[in-house]
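During the reporting period the student researcher (J.K.) took over the structure-prediction task from the postdoctoral fellow and processed the backlog of single-chain submissions. One of the processed entries is reproduced below for the supervisory committee.
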Amino acid sequence: MKKASFLLVLALLSLTLSAQDKVGDTTAVSPSHLERYYGRLYNGDNGMKMDRTSLQNTLSSEDFTLYRKARRELIAAIPLWTLSGVFLTLATNWYCAMIDLTYFHVPYPDAGGSLVYFILGCSALGMSLITFIPAIILTLDSYKKLDHVASSYNQKSYPVSLSFGPTRHGVGITLNF
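J.K. obtained the following structure tokens:
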């Protein structure tokens, strides 16, 4: 009996301790409005970046799903931006090599070598454009979705409700507004 009561008291104490919010915890209170800055949503009250768990607790399920889609699109655009930069750098280097062979080797111009560099430069520039266009589309689409999530959160008015039950930090009374 002593062992069971000790475990019960220990469980109740752990619930009581974990139900308290930390001092300075910015995710404990829902923000009054959200702001998008680049690919992230920020708390409009204090300017702090909101992490995934606080957004999941703050946003509706539809808005959070849209937020996750926007983040996936933004992350998918990163390798496309990188590839576009690599191909653009290669194209620039090959065009510079073509100009060097064509104009600065005046006594012995190498027309065949400059043609090879011209073809390589054109193909690298084409690959750069092929990766640049989807990167722009994905980035702008994800910004549009994040703006929609922020504006729909900022325009909603939630009814006031008082409930008793499990919360993020344990069991207690919750006032939602």
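The committee noted the following: Helices lie at 2-18, 52-58, 61-103, 111-155.
J.K. will present the remaining backlog at the next meeting.
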